[in-house]
From TrEMBL:
Protein name per its UniProtKB record: peptidylprolyl isomerase
Domain PPIase cyclophilin-type: residue ranges: 355-499
Listed GO MF terms: peptidyl-prolyl cis-trans isomerase activity
Coiled coil ranges: none
Gene3D superfamilies, alphabetized: Cyclophilin-like (2.40.100.10), Leucine-rich Repeat Variant (1.25.10.10)
Family annotation (InterPro entries): ARM-like (IPR011989), ARM-type_fold (IPR016024), Cyclophilin-like_dom_sf (IPR029000), Cyclophilin-type_PPIase_dom (IPR002130), Cyclophilin_A-like (IPR044666), PBS_lyase_HEAT (IPR004155)
Catalytic class of the enzyme: isomerase
Sequence ranges of Gly residues compositional bias: 511-520
Organism: mine drainage metagenome
Pfam families, sorted: HEAT_2, Pro_isomerase
């Protein structure tokens, strides 16, 4: 896929694999599910077909229809979604609010504010995500801005669920250039200093780095440099770099010797920033002073690769009409709203010149993206591709012979979802024709985050996460390559809320070409 300007990270094409069987509670593939995916791919309301699925379908169909309505970006979807923000089913309420945020036309703001007080944490996550999209799209009128900011600040400090508090802290970045900046900065300092949940403290320091580095007391940043958690140290180092205060150089220099390679690399970048020098855009060689972690073998190395198609051919764009998607999305908690649905999930092994990276993929949130990626991998397009863009403490990116390569001649649609771009997340890259990411421009390029990059959540499709091989990321430079990507036996995500990752191997998943059922 050709990059215009800087093409940030994308993942690729899967034209034909058989995805896992049904998870507990999932609904088998039906013509309606296939029809839904076809309409979503075409960005069409289907002359009311999606609305009828939401209005009259069972919970799993209604949840998926709400998400599809938002992804169409059609203004006519808003009234349909507004009819379901008070639905008796929490997952339908949550996805209806999230979908209104995808439309970001301002009509859903009152419902989103009400959703912030919903008893169900999944609904509060949907409302928060939607409000953030409205603020960033400049759809919140001045008369409502303070109320929206107060709602998010209250959630950051007072919500009973730490995931909701985390997301609220992240979303406060949207107010950094508004009249609400000062109180938002104070809330973030309080959240960082007092919240018992590590995830919230990390998010608060990330938000300080992204929007408030020059507003918070220097003592807060200096204190964070000594945190036991490496992610907090990373965000504090970033924030000091963003403070533009050369007097803080002396505080950063010891961080070049931090025990974490990620902190070391970010310290070097922040020192460049304070000295007014350009950031590193391409990681060509690892300095000798970086503390590289040892490369460990994973138990997953013993799993066999599933066979590739007997007669490889160039991948083609995924076709929703050829899929048989099962329905499994039913998030009734904050953890389920930002994670995979219970059940079987495809896994892949990325064999690199430095070692193996393992990914678990989430077709229930991004069916065509996963379909595309698996098919491109199975047909060998990713074999021997370079890591053509590695940015310290940001991303490692590959998926084409170069950032300017023409790709395979097709693009796939964005599949926006509530999953967060934490560390070690895989997402699709996009073109930047006018300095902004172009929706629906993903193709084969993909990236893996080296640290939290929550500002990418609004535009880039998350479709999986790393589950093993983390130390390999530390050793990669742009001289390295992806040797091949193999599918391995599927994992099973347990039904316990908040649990992400493989618990047991599911045998028998096929890696052959052909219509591949995605899980929705």
């Amino acid at each position: 896929m050709r990059s215009s300007g800087t093409r940030l990270i994308a993942i690729a094409a899967l034209a034909a694999l058989t995805l896992p069987g049904l998870s507990e509670g999932a609904v088998p593939a039906t013509p309606k599910a296939t029809r839904l995916l076809m309409l979503e791919q075409r960005r069409s309301l289907g002359h009311g077909a999606l609305a009828r699925m939401l209005d009259t379908g069972g919970t799993l169909l209604a949840v998926r229809a709400a998400l599809a309505l938002g992804r169409t970006k059609q203004a006519a979807a808003a009234p349909v979604l507004l009819n379901h923000v008070a639905d008796s089913r929490p997952a339908v309420r949550a996805l209806s609010l999230f979908a209104l945020g995808l439309l970001a036309d301002g009509r859903g703001i009152p419902a989103m504010l009400r959703g912030m007080h919903d008893r169900n944490s999944a609904v509060r996550v949907g409302a928060l995500d939607a409000l953030d999209r409205e603020v960033m799209a400049a759809q919140v009128p001045g008369t409502l801005l303070a109320r929206v900011a107060r709602a998010e600040m209250h959630a950051a400090l007072g919500d009973s669920n730490p995931i909701v508090r985390k997301i609220a802290a992240i979303d406060l970045v949207a107010f950094a250039a508004t009249t609400q900046a000062a109180p938002a900065a104070a809330v973030l300092v309080k959240a960082f200093s007092e919240d018992p949940a590590l995830a919230v403290r990390r998010a608060a320091m990330w938000a300080i780095y992204r929007g408030y580095a020059a507003r918070v007391p220097r003592s807060i940043l200096l204190h964070a440099l000594a945190a036991s958690d490496s992610v907090i140290r990373i965000e504090a180092v970033r924030a000091i770099g963003g403070s533009k205060d050369p007097a803080l150089l002396s505080a950063l220099e010891p961080m070049l010797h931090d025990r974490s390679w990620r902190v070391q690399e970010q310290a070097a970048e922040s020192i460049l920033a304070l000295k007014g020098r350009p950031a590193t855009q391409h990681w060509k060689q690892i300095p000798a002073w970086i503390h590289l972690p040892p490369l460990h073998r994973s138990a997953l190395d013993r799993l066999p690769a599933l066979p590739r198609p007997a007669q490889p051919r160039l991948p083609a764009a995924p076709n929703a009409a050829a899929l048989s998607p099962a329905l499994s999305l039913d998030p009734t908690s904050a953890a389920e709203m930002i994670g995979p649905a219970p059940g079987a999930h495809p896994r892949v092994r990325i064999v690199t010149t430095q070692g193996n990276i393992y990914l678990e993929l989430y077709p229930e949130w991004a069916p065509l993206t996963v379909e595309n990626f698996l098919n491109v991998a199975a047909r060998g397009y990713y074999d021997n591709q370079p890591w053509f863009r590695i940015v310290p403490d940001f991303v490692v990116q590959t998926g084409d012979p170069s950032a300017e390569a023409p790709g395979l001649g097709y693009t796939i649609g964005a599949e926006e979802n509530p999953m967060l771009q934490d560390s070690d997340i895989i997402s699709m890259g996009l073109d930047y024709p006018k300095g902004k990411p172009a929706r629906d421009s993903a193709a084969t390029e993909y990236y893996i985050t080296l640290s939290p990059q929550y500002h990418l959540d609004r535009d880039f499709t998350v479709f999986g996460k790393m589950i093993a091989g983390f130390s390999v990321l530390a050793h990669l430079t742009e001289a390295d390559r992806v040797i091949r990507i193999d599918r391995i036996p599927d994992s099973v995500v347990p039904a316990t809320p908040g649990t992400v990752g493989a618990t047991r191997v599911r045998r028998g998943a096929s890696n052959r070409g052909g219509g591949s059922p995605g899980r929705h």
